[in-house]
Amino acid sequence: MKATSQTLDYRGNNTVGWAMAHRMNVRARTKEAEKAHTVYSKFLKERTLPNLWTVVPPFQIDGNLGTLAGVAEMLIQSHEGFIEFLPALPKAWETGSFDGLVARGNFELAMSWNESTVSSLKIISKSGGKCSIKYMGIKGAQIKRSWW
After folding, report:
1. Is residue 141 part of a domain?
2. What domain range includes position 33?
3. DSSP secondary structure of the chain
4. pLDDT over threshold 80, residue 67
5. What is the average per-residue pLDDT within 123-147?
């Protein structure tokens, strides 16, 4: 992963929207929160219009949708057989929430966090499967309801 990060550092972030979205996703996957956030901010400031359409004519949706995928990748990752929460959370997102993200295995998630720590989490298995999770602060977690 170090080579990937170094290559992106070398190539920079001055490119078209879809390529910025790709860079953001890679930075999120490699858990480089601040670098992913830098690309995200640059995309919003320099590659979108006030209506959030990309500035490159003709309109292309790939940068917009790829950037949304990057945000999800910063908040949850589930490609290794477990769900990891806030794997690439930048300092700018110290407090936040989401509802309705779906992880691999068809697990629907809702989560809130404060001071970069999960404060509430809801996991619904849409397929009835077992869920494995990874979270650095899990030691202090309390399960209030284990079924819905």
Report:
1. no
2. 2-133
3. -HHHHHHHHHH-S-S-HHHHHHHHHHHHHTT-HHHHHHHHHHHHHHSB-TTS-BSSSSP-SHHHHHHHHHHHHHHEE-TTSSEEESTT--GGGSSEEEEEEEETTTEEEEEEEETTEEEEEEEEESS-----EE-TTGGG---S-S--
4. yes
5. 81
Contact at 8 Å (CB) between 23 and 67? no
Tell me, rounded to whole angstroms, the distance of Cα 13 from its chain centroid: 18
139 domain residue, yes or no: no
**Domain-embedded: residue 58:** yes
Question: What is the spatial distance between Cα 131 and Cα 83, in angstroms, rounded to a whole number?
Answer: 8
Domain count, the chain: 1
pLDDT tens sequence across 78-97 = 999 999 999 999 999 999 99
Report strand pairing: 133-134 vs 83-85: parallel
Average pLDDT of span 105-111? 97
Residue 145 lies in a domain: no
Q: How many CA atoms lie within 13 A of 100 on its CB side?
A: 0
Token digits for 88? 């690439």
